[in-house]
Amino acid sequence: MAETKNKSKAIQALEVLSFEMKRVKCPNVPYLIRTTYRDDRSNDLTKCVIDWITLNGYQSERINSTGRQIKIKGQNKWIPGSQTIGTSDISATIKGRSVKIEIKCAATGDRYQSKEQKQYQLMIERAGGVYIIVRDFQGFYNWYLKFVTDGR
């Protein structure tokens, strides 16, 4: 019980929505396991955002831009990814709008965009897309509610 008190209203709403969707998908399963969420690490925050968007009937996907490591002649070499440099962490379509989401988890101290990320943001906004920086799930949740209500 104490765990719920420490969770933001947004995380609690996500957990309820997730459980309700499980109940709809599996109406005959008497004991469903509740998914718990947290937003104090970048990967967990990313999962919260993707799950919220998807559970609400929109499209979202994680963008992996890290590249990969391969072995050439016994030595490890790093091969950069083929994505646009500075690309966002999440690409989504919400209410027909392209939304790019950069995760900068406040709890881990990840605060600043790189020069390439700022350039990518400008490119998206010039093209009419939406670009947001998410630092915690409550902030994203507040933005989302406003966006789906009035499109901003």
Q: How would a crystallographer describe the biggest sheet?
A: 4 strands, mixed
Structural class: alpha+beta
Strand order of the largest sheet: 1-4-5-6
- The count of DSSP E runs of length 2 or more, i.e. the number of strands, is 6
Label the overall shape.
globular
Radius of gyration: 18 Å
> What is the CATH architecture descriptor?
3-Layer(aba) Sandwich
Mean pLDDT: 90
Spatial separation of the terminal alpha carbons: 36 Å
The CATH topology turns out to be Trna Endonuclease, Chain: A, domain 1
Series of H and E elements: HHHEEEEEHEH
Short synopsis of the structure:
The protein is an alpha+beta fold. It has helices spanning about 1-5, 10-25, 40-55, 115-125, 135-150; strands at about 60, 70, 75-80, 90-95, 95-105, 130-135. It is built from five helices and six strands; from the N terminus they run αααβββββαβα.
Structure notes:
The chain is α+β, with helices and mostly antiparallel strands and 152 residues long. The chain has a single domain (39-150), classed as Trna Endonuclease, Chain: A, domain 1. Helix content is 41%, strand content 20%. The protein has five helices and six strands. The strands form two sheets. Strands 1-4-5-6 form a four-stranded mixed β-sheet. Strands 2-3 form a two-stranded antiparallel ribbon. Helix 4 links the parallel strand 5 (97-103) and strand 6 (130-134). The radius of gyration is 18 Å and the shape is globular. The termini are far apart. The relative contact order is 0.16. The mean pLDDT is 90.
